[in-house]
Specification:
Elements lengths: L3 E4 L3 E6 L12 E7 L1 H11 L4 E8 L2 H12 L3 E8 L5 E7 L5 E6 L15 H5 L3 E5 L6 H16 L3 E5 L10 H13 L2 E2 L3 H8 L4 H11 L4 E5 L5 E4 L4 E4 L12 H14 L4 H16 L11 H10 L5
Parallel strand pairs: 1-4, 1-8, 2-6, 4-5, 8-9, 9-10, 10-11
Antiparallel strand pairs: 2-3, 6-7, 11-12, 12-13
Helix pairs in contact: 1-8, 4-5, 6-7, 8-9, 9-10
This protein binds adenosine-5'-triphosphate (ATP) and magnesium ion.
């Protein structure tokens, strides 16, 4: 039985070399790096010891080899990934601004990543997994939405749990189809992993505690973990909450921290690791992820995380 199923966009990422660089004039870009939020999640979950399978589509090109080889080498079951010569592998370009913000140019909609649909979901993989993780960024096309909905049905039939990182992006705010899909996954999910901005999307300007209480009242959720970047995370279940401070690191590249945090947390839960240790390991994984350039280059094993935790200073 597979511990964790992840599904969605497989990307190559190309990043600006220096902060302040823009897309509107020539500059040095680095890469390609393997990327895609569900891929970063899956890679990290596998590296930390869970058995992980992936469903997705990559082009029959070098970028496709880059991402599929990385996942395979790190232990992910890639049998649910198809390759196509119809469209190229998806890409993400990113620049970093002085205020910490990022600008992305994605090509997902016109890439191999958009070719998945309900038929891409292997019933054996989805029906047999213990956790199915959904990224909001994977709900960008009608085919990928159909694939997620089909997998949700199969996972529920097989008694698997659903974890969800809404990862709300600007296009969600203007697309009723994507917004409906986000709310559909929220209704089905057991473990929600929002950022503060994701909570605002669901609950407006309500303070965090109130927002979380509203979500528990109206959904089947058993656990919500709010990711707060350098402030760490706050865990909530229906009876208690727990703030776990993060670790002090120099942030080199924030992309992928949330995915890496989620991959570690769900991997730990699948392996029966207690929640307090799981949250500490997830914070450590997020901190190590932001310390390396490249969305998956700071991914880590449990023993690397333990060594980091022993030597790092915590934020207070
Ligand atoms: P993403 O930008 O990948 O969508 P996110 O907003 O979902 O990320 P963040 O809160 O930015 O998630 O990061 C996830 C976790 O990584 C945090 O809860 C924290 O544990 C760790 N982390 C992120 N940034 C830092 C930082 N600058 N210093 C230390 N830890 C960090
Ligand atoms: Mg963030």
């Amino acid at each position: 039985m597979t511990d964790i199923l992840s599904m969605g966009e497989l990307l190559a990422e190309i990043m600006a070399e220096r902060v302040g660089q823009t897309f509107t004039e020539p500059g040095v870009f680095l890469g390609p790096y393997p990327s895609g939020a569900p891929a970063i999640f899956a890679d990290q979950a596998a590296k930390t010891g869970a058995s992980v399978a992936f469903i997705g589509c990559a082009g029959e090109d070098g970028f496709g080899d880059l991402i599929v080889n990385r996942l395979r080498d790190d232990g992910v079951d890639v049998s649910g990934i198809t390759r196509t010569d119809e469209l190229p592998t998806g890409t993400a370009f990113v620049t970093y601004q002085e205020d910490g913000s990022r600008e992305f140019i994605f090509n997902i909609g016109n890439s191999a990543a958009a070719l998945i649909d309900a038929d891409s979901v292997d019933p054996a993989l989805a029906g047999g997994c213990r956790y199915f993780h959904v990224m909001g960024s994977s709900l960008g096309s009608s085919g990928s939405i159909a694939a997620v909905k089909r997998a949700l049905e199969l996972v529920k039939q097989g008694d698997g749990k659903v974890s969800f990182d809404p990862n709300i992006r600007p296009e969600v705010l203007t697309s009723p189809v994507i917004s409906e899909a986000i709310h559909h996954v929220l209704k089905e999910c057991d473990i929600l992993l929002p950022s503060e901005a994701d909570l605002q999307y669901f609950c407006g300007d309500a303070p965090e505690r109130e927002a979380v209480a509203t979500l528990f009242d109206s959904h089947r959720l058993e656990m919500i973990v709010v990711k707060n970047a350098a402030e760490g995370c706050v865990y909530y279940d229906r009876t208690r909450s727990l703030h776990v401070p993060s670790f002090q690191v120099a942030e080199v590249d924030p992309t992928g921290a949330g995915d890496c945090f989620g991959g570690t947390l769900i991997s730990c839960l699948a392996q029966g690791i207690d929640i307090e240790r799981a949250l500490t390991l997830a914070n450590a994984a997020g901190a190590m992820a932001v310390s390396e350039r490249g969305p998956m280059e700071g991914n880590t094993t449990l023993s690397e995380l333990d060594r980091f935790i022993d030597s790092a200073e915590r934020h207070v």
